Amino acid sequence: MKKVLFLIFALFFVSNSVFAAYEFEIKDRKITYQEDELKFYENDELLTPEKVNLLFPEYQLLLISDFDKNKKYTYKNSLFKSKNILLVNDTNRTFHKFFIYPESSRNQLNKEDKKCLIKSLITIYGKKNVRLKHEGGDEFEIVVK
Question: What are residue 62's DSSP bridge partners?
Answer without folding.
Answer: 87
